[in-house]
Amino acid sequence: MFNNKIILITGGTGSFGSAFVRYAIKKNINFKEIRIFSRDEKKQDDFRKEIKNSKIKFFIGDVKDENSIDLAIKDVDFIFHAAAYKQVPSCEFYPMEAVKTNIFGTDNVLRQATKNNVKKVICLSTDKAVYPINAMGISKAMMEKIATSKSLIGKSSTSVCITRYGNVMASRGSVIPLFVDQIKNNKEITVTDLKMTRFLMSMDNALELVFYALKQGENGGIYVQKTTSTTIENIVKALKKIFNKKNHPVRIIGYRHGEKLHESLLTNEEASKAIDKGKYFYVPGDSRDLNYDLFYKTGNKNASKYLDYSSNNVKILNSNEVEKILRELDLIKNYLSG
Question: Cα(59)–Cα(166) distance, rounded to whole angstroms?
Fold first, then answer.
């Protein structure tokens, strides 16, 4: 897929972008160039010093500014659009910033991609875009709508599809690094609700999903990887066992702004038309047009027969199963070895 190709990653100094670059170098992928587009010059400088690879190019810019994307996108084959405001609390307090980056920024990227005949754009989304209750989720849901609309309106050589996944373990926004720091510093583990469930995905899972969408993804489609979940209680139990802190105190602090008890990766309406692809679900792009007269006569009769794909109705791992997964994380290995 990547042989002699130019790849652009928006928000490229984030968790996904840095993991993709490390993977590409480790696997000796014969890419022509990877362009890291982001607004944080300090992160770019740190990453440049770490990678030390002349085929990794760094572009300072902001997706909110369409002109700053223009230079970075010339001759690009594939775009991974990962730039976003992802922190739920900050988006709750500054929702217009989430709108500017997650919604208008996506529109800017896709306009420039179409203008420059980029072959394919993969937009990275989140479970919080499904039945959204917070500003971050609402803005990412609108990001998805903008992406899917590109397959409805106008003809273009640029294919756009979406990958949707839950919190990636130990990435920015994951609760696991917080719990680890609290244990290591002999502070109380602060938990909103022990019965809360969350999907368990590794960064490798996230990369696999994006690679699948890049290779197999159809214009306007949404791609979800099948995954397991667990309760926050089981994560806490697993970490206490890993660090031999069986009696470490836990304090229930209650729900934060915009927080759900369970997360979903597919609505029941999406699940009713999703196509099973083995490890993945594929939700076909919306093929409607503005002739709504048709929808007074026909619709989806199966929608009410399906459950949404949520963290409380998939396989929920027990604390021992969670422990095995957590022990494989670099974050845990580094703490244990240090």
Answer: 28
Whose CA is closest to 286, among 271, 270, 310, 302? 270
Tell me the per-residue pLDDT of 147-172, one tens digit each, with 9 for 90 and over. 998 877 666 789 999 999 888 887 77
> Quick check: 52 and 65 in contact, CB under 8 A?
no
Nearest to 212 by CA among 296, 120, 133: 120
| Interatomic CA distance for residues 259 and 134, integer angstroms | 7
Q: If you write DSSP's letter for every residue of 45-91 in order, what string do you get?
A: HHHHHHH--TTEEEEE--TT-HHHHHHHHTT-SEEEE------HHHH
Catalytic residue chosen out of the listed positions 27, 32, 42, 128: 128
Supply angle C-alpha 231, 331, 261, rounded to 5.
Answer: 20
In this predicted model, what pLDDT tens digit does every residue of 191-227 receive, in sequence order?
999 999 999 999 999 999 999 999 999 999 999 999 9
Residue ranges of the alpha helices (H) in the chain?
Answer: 15-26, 41-51, 66-73, 88-93, 95-98, 105-115, 135-149, 176-184, 203-216, 232-242, 268-273, 319-326, 330-337
Q: What is the pTM of this model?
A: 0.92
| 128 a catalytic residue | yes
Which helix or strand (DSSP H or E) is residue 189 part of? strand 189-191
Mean pLDDT of 54-62: 95
176 class by beta-carbon count within 10 Å (0-12 exposed, 13-18 middle, 19+ buried) = buried
- Identify which of 234, 233, 239 has the alpha carbon closest to the alpha carbon of residue 193: 233
51: β partners: none
In percent, the amount of the chain with pLDDT more than 90 equals 76
Banded pLDDT at 237 (limits 50, 70, 90): very high
